Amino acid sequence: MQRPDWAPETIDIERPSVARMYDYYLGGSHNFAADRAAAQAMVAAVPEAPLMAQANRAFLRRAVHHLAEAGIRQFLDIGSGIPTVGNVHEIAQRIDPDSRVVYVDVDPVAVAHSREILAGNDRAVVVQEDLRHPEKILAHPGVRRLLDLDQPVAVMIVAVLHFVPDEDRPAELLRTLREALAPGSYLVLSQASDDGRSSDERAEAERVYRRTDNPLWVRSRAELTVLFDGFELVDPGVVWVPQWRPDTPESAEDAERTVFIGGVGRLGG
User: pTM, whole model, 2 decimals?
Assistant: First the structure.
């Protein structure tokens, strides 16, 4: 297929990318035939897949709005994906134009498109790095230039941890981030869960994502709660993402269909 102008020459457009599949679920246009085919296979296996992506985006929006209203003015969004309407900087800077946002993603298409969107916004930047290397994220010149780690920061890791297997020691990765944060900082997490899912559904979803560079690693609510170690959970704790401070009671109905659990924690001290 013809390579669009926004796609770097270094990427393989014939291999599905989870960031571009997520873009497809959200109705975006920055995805390729291979991504759409993999996403459609996922929808065949788990019909709620687009709902899952949309519910996560809504959770991110509500979490950012809550934290911005609470006075947070610095955001570090790790695994940010391809920006679409409702990005962290749009929400935070609507509340306070001085809010600063650093997006981090390992996918070169996500990074390239983010740079296009953020051109001219001197309070938002994107860096290419991997959650599995938190020390590199924290030391990155773009992060150091825009964020003051001596002041509270909200770290967003939304719809990412299910691509981090236990062998990559997610608890240690999060501990490295936590130890770099000032008191009053926040951690926002969400990820796919197998709570309430059949073994057949889990196996088929895992089979689809083995076609990508990021196999699926689901966790239970108890397992995700453990990853908030060192943070005090904000009410209502770790829940299905539509149940986290919903806009209306109706929007939290059938929340388990979204498959995603999430929560927000605050660092005391």
Answer: 0.86
